[in-house]
Write a structure and sequence with these properties.
The protein has nine helices and 20 strands. By secondary structure, it is α/β, with parallel strands linked by helices. It folds into two domains: about 25-85 and about 360-410, no CATH class; about 90-355, Alpha-Beta Barrel (TIM Barrel). The strands form six sheets. A six-stranded mixed β-sheet has the order 2-1-20-19-4-3. Helix 3 packs parallel to helix 5 (about 185-190), helix 6 crosses helix 7 (about 260-275) and helix 7 (about 260-275) runs parallel beside helix 8 (about 295-305). The longest helix is centred in the first third of the chain and has 25 residues, at about 1-25. It is elongated, with a radius of gyration of 27 Å. The chain starts with a helix and ends in a 16-residue tail after the last strand. Bound molecules: zinc ion. Zinc ion binds near residues 149, 250 and 289. Zinc ion (ZN) binds near residues 149, 150, 250 and 289.
Length: about 400
């Protein structure tokens, strides 16, 4: 009796010692990727994850995140805080012109884009906002969403010979030339691309010629089907920006019954697909013409039930001059606030952006490996200079740890 107790006790003691000795090798360990005192890249400050817990959840808690999302891209994970407080501006533009209402001058649009960049705002797409995916926003930047309704004057203009609306487009070896004062040209010059695309959505309606150009083509009348230059522009936007639905006829939802409105949404979507020459790749959102007050349960159901080519909407936008909630808040994805941008409210827009309780992005870039080694570089992992980079050695998986010094990976 006595002997076997001692035997058990020593076995237990051995087990504890062994666990301590091998803790690092059998557990998940986060290493900070930073420069050492000789200014050489190194793995420092190991954090050993207690066994039996999810390493990302544990790590997010040690970072003090309220809520979080993990987006994995092969062996690289983007651990992003999902803020529960703060505001996201979702800006709604219309025309580019000198008119006071629902129009902004091209110079002010240039100024706005430069101002946003200089003040650490980062353009996320309406999709990313609705999917609460801010994984591409570098630490310290403030997410903002932008788009333009109506496909109206100044949105996307090619240079023409003669009249701007009806005249033939000037081409250079077949390629049209952009009017430098149009929204598309200004965005291409003053906004950053993300994976080849500028995060700006054009919500197109078909109550007038989309983008207000015919390129010498005879005006077919509403809903303006089969105009070659419209197809050229829709395809361009689907590849380089994002497209959204603004219905076929641009009618206020409460001026008809919910099913009729859903039919308007579907018809607008089908026209976009027809022009895209198949399912338009980026169409997943709707901007309610004139906004929506209130979104009734019947209308909500009718809109969420719309499906074209097996695809449904992921959300819809109001036009109520408010800033939108943060990604960690409860929100109705089909009644999201947008802020009006025009010449009349220009000063108010800048004041609102200056004093907004903006969400400030926080993320950690985590590279998962099975053995202790250095990544090629922080940039190879998609990290910006403000992001913290960590290497997570998955000791709980296939164990290949070695005692060698860390070596840069091929
Ligand atoms: Zn509109």
């Amino acid at each position: 009796m006595q002997r076997s107790s001692i035997g058990l006790a020593s076995a237990a003691l051995f087990f504890i010692l062994a666990s301590l000795l091998f803790a690092e090798e059998s557990s998940n360990v986060f290493w900070r990727y930073a420069n050492d005192r000789y200014n050489q890249p190194a793995l420092i400050d190991p954090l050993i994850v207690p066994s039996g817990v999810d390493p990302y959840d544990w790590f997010a808690e040690t970072q003090g995140f309220d809520a979080w999302e993990v987006h994995k891209n092969n062996e690289v994970a983007f651990l992003t805080e999902k803020s529960v407080t703060g505001e996201i501006p979702i800006l709604c533009l219309h025309k580019l012109s000198r008119e006071e209402d629902y129009a902004l001058t091209p110079d002010r649009f240039r100024y706005l884009l430069d101002y946003l960049r200089e003040n650490n705002w980062y353009l996320v797409s309406d999709h990313q906002y609705l999917e609460r995916d801010f994984s591409r926003v570098p630490t310290g930047m403030k997410p903002i969403v932008m788009g333009s309704d109506d496909a109206s004057h100044g949105n996307f203009v090619f240079q023409t010979k003669g009249d701007l609306i009806t005249g033939p487009v000037k081409r250079f070896f077949g390629s049209p030339r952009l009017d430098r004062d149009s929204m598309v040209a200004i965005l291409e010059k003053h906004a950053e691309r993300e994976e080849g695309r500028i995060n700006f959505t054009f919500y197109v309606s078909f109550d007038a010629i989309p983008f207000r150009q015919l390129d010498d083509y005879e005006n077919p009348g509403a809903p303006y089907r089969g105009v070659p230059i419209i197809a050229e522009k829709i395809r361009y936007l689907d590849n380089n920006f994002l497209l959204g639905i603004h219905t076929r006829s641009h009618i206020y939802a409460h001026d008809m019954n919910p099913n009729e409105f859903a039919q308007e949404v579907r018809a607008g979507w089908e026209l976009l697909n027809e022009y895209a020459g198949g399912q338009a790749e980026t169409v997943r959102t709707l901007a309610f013409p004139f906004g929506i007050r209130p979104l009734t349960p019947e209308l909500r159901r009718a809109v969420t039930d719309v499906s074209v080519g097996g695809v449904s909407l992921i959300g819809a936008f109001d036009f109520d001059n408010k800033l939108a909630p943060p990604p960690g808040a409860e929100l109705d994805l089909f009644d999201v606030s947008r802020f009006n941008v025009d010449n009349r409210n220009w000063e108010r827009l800048l004041r609102t952006l200056d004093k907004a309780d903006a969400v400030v992005a926080r993320r950690d870039i985590i590279w998962e490996t099975d053995i202790k080694k250095l990544p090629k570089s922080r940039y190879s992992l998609g990290a910006s200079s403000s992001d913290e980079v960590w290497v997570l050695i998955r000791g709980d998986r296939e164990h290949l740890a070695s005692d060698e010094q860390p070596v840069p990976s091929g």
